[in-house]
Every structure is written in C-alpha cells, then in structure tokens.
C-alpha cells in the first residue's frame, strides 16, 4: 500500500513527463521533416549549381578554343594565300606584317616578306642583265651585218682585181 501511495504520487508527474515526451517527439518529427525538406532542396540546388558550372565551363572552353583557333587559322590562311601568289609569279603581292607580332606565324610573315623583297631585287637585276644582253646582241648583229656587207664589197673588189689581173696576164 505504501508503494501504491508512493506510486500514486508519481503518477501525475509521470503523466506530465509522458505528455512532454510526446510533444518533444512530435516537435522532433516536424523538425526532421523540415530538415529533410531543406536537405533535399540543398541537394537539388547543389546539383543545379554543379550542372550550371559544368555547362558554363564547357561554353567558356569552346569560346576560348574558337578564338585561339581563329587567331591561328586566319593568319595561316593569309600566309598560304600569299605564298600561292608568290608561287604563281606575282611578286607585286605584299604581306601585311605587324611589327609587334613575335609569334611563329609573325616570324613566318617576316620571312615571306623578306623573301619577296629579295626575289623582286633578283628579278630586277636579271631584267637589267637581259636588257643589256638584248642591246649588246642587237649591236653585235648590226656589226655582223656591217662586216658581212664590207666582206661582200671586198670580195667584189677582189673579183674585179682578179679579173683585171687576168686581162693583164692575157695581154702579155
């Protein structure tokens, strides 16, 4: 009986404790649901941010690749076009060279421009020599014609002399 009386005194406190525990359990469950919702939202947001960052990285990489390839391909097309003109014999073509360009393509442009300048000088020298040779050949041809004419005149005079000598020889 004493135990029942003592137990009866704990009963209201025990019921309060039980009620508080139920409220705490309910609060934990609500907070757990809210935490799950927040965690799921954070996961979705993180996934979206990672996908967005990846796509941005791909786009930036593609743009950088495009501009780098364009900065290489365009000058190479200029150089090959210029080389084709030179190969076709057009030495009047000019290569636009940026004096600040220290890349391999810039050095190639400088080299092609210098080569074209040298070829133009060589062609000018060859032209001068061939003009001189043409003039000299004309003078030699004129001299040969004059010599031929004089030789014919001398041959004719020699024939007359020989003929006169024969006449003198016959009269004797």
Overview of this protein structure:
- With 172 residues, the protein is mostly helical.
- It has one domain: Methyl-accepting chemotaxis protein (Helix Hairpins).
- The chain contains two helices and no strands.
- Helix 1 (2-87) packs parallel to helix 2 (104-171).
- The longest helix has 86 residues, at 2-87.
- The protein starts with a helix and ends with a helix.
Strand and helix layout:
Layout: H1 2-87, H2 104-171
Helix pairs in contact: 1-2
Instruction: Please provide the count of β strands.
Output: 0
Biggest sheet record: none
Class inferred from helices and paired strands: mainly alpha
The 3D shape can be described as: rod-shaped
**The top level CATH class name:** Mainly Alpha
Give the SSE order as H and E letters. HH
Instruction: Work out the helicity level.
Output: over 70%
Determine Rg (CA atoms, Å): 55 Å
Number of self-contained structural domains: 1
Count of separate DSSP helical elements? 2
**What percent of residues are in strands?**
under 5%
CA(first)-CA(last) distance: 204 Å
Question: What is the CATH architecture descriptor?
Answer: Orthogonal Bundle
Question: What do the pLDDT scores average to?
Answer: 86
Q: Which spans of ≥5 residues are poorly predicted at pLDDT below 50?
A: none
CATH topology: Helix Hairpins
Find the CATH superfamily: Methyl-accepting chemotaxis protein
